[in-house]
Every structure is written in structure tokens, then in C-alpha cells.
Automatic annotation (TrEMBL):
SUPFAM superfamilies: STI-like. Keywords: Signal. InterPro entries: Kunitz_inhibitor_STI-like_sf, Prot_inh_Kunz-lg. This is Miraculin-like. It comes from the Eukaryota. PANTHER family: KUNITZ TRYPSIN INHIBITOR 2, LIPID TRANSFER PROTEIN. Residues 1-23 form the signal peptide.
Amino acid sequence: MMRTLLSFALLFALCTQALLIEAQTNPGGPISQPVKDTSGNNVRAGADYFIRPVSTVPVICRRPGCGTGFALASTTPNKACPLNVVVVGGNGQPVKFTPVSPNKDGVITTSTDLNVRVDVKTNCTESTVWRLQSDTSTGKRIVTTGGVIGNPGKNTISNWFKILKDDNDYSLQFCPTVCNTCRPACGNIGVFQDSNGNALVGITDQPFKIRFQTSS
């Protein structure tokens, strides 16, 4: 009995210490936890994942290509570039995540600043790294391309996004903390339709639930 109590006390102490360390590394914010893909595995930096909207990916959806996914597309009439992030039918296009401070295991965690790069080749001069910018045609801030990987600070403030836990799923947020003197206008990353029928990804009032599916 005494041995059982000692074992329980030791386990409790270790768990408490881990929580304290986590709180110290992320003061004033939610505790980070590993992001999981649809197979229950950790999402890792440098690996390819499809971003799949939850509302269109029911549990019974097992055939390849069903549902919708995030991808790049030209949404400006008579202009092929730059490409913006949209929701399309099928899996969409794979993305890679690069956190501001990679951990030794390469695991992506929630509430952490990261870059998102769409892993496709395009004919545009802009990079395929996500970047938030104001769109004059819609009057909203949309996720477009032309960002850069790394170099956290004032000049790259629009390139950083976060993955948040949302019930059993996830959502995306723009609220970078890579610049101590900056005061970015934070917002949820969701989906809305423009006048041409494009499902644009950008700042919305409500969170937009998503999941991460491996491309292999």
C-alpha cells in the first residue's frame, strides 16, 4: 500500500512539474500540445499535410478526393497571379509547417507561431508561403502568397499563423507574437465567398474547424 502511494505521489509530482514548465515557456497563454493528424499521429514540421474542413469531411468519407481542402488559385479576374488560398473540392494541395522555434522532435504544437508553405510549383513569381493582406475587392483580409519562411519580426508579421485546439478538431488563427513592439489585429482564419463565387480563406468572425490529413 505504501509503495502504491509513493508511486502515485511521484507521478503527480512529475506531471505537475511538466505543467509548470509548459506554463513558464508560454506565459499568459494557453498550454501548447502536439497537433494530431486524422490518423492520430503527431503533425511534424517539413511533412506534407492536406488541410481539410471538418464540415465537409464526415467520418464515413473514405474514398480519396471526397470532401474539400485548402489550395491555391487565381481569384482576381484577368490576372493569373498572385495566387490566393481557397477551398476547393477534393483533397486540396499539401502544405508544410515551419514553427518559429522548432523543437528537437519536429512536432508541431498548438498556439505556436508558424509559417505555412503550400508544397506545389506554380508559374507565379511569388513564393507559396502564406501571407495575410488586405483585399480591396472584398474589403477583408485574405490569405494570399508571397510570404517568407522564418526571420520573425516586424517585417514578417503578416506571415505567421497559429493552430488552435477546437473541441476534437482544430482551427487557424492570425495572432502573431514574433514582434514585441507590434500590435497586430488578431482574428480567426475562416472561409467566405467573394462576388465571383470563390471560397476565399481569410479573417472571419467565427473559427473554422479543420483537420490535418497526411498526403501519403
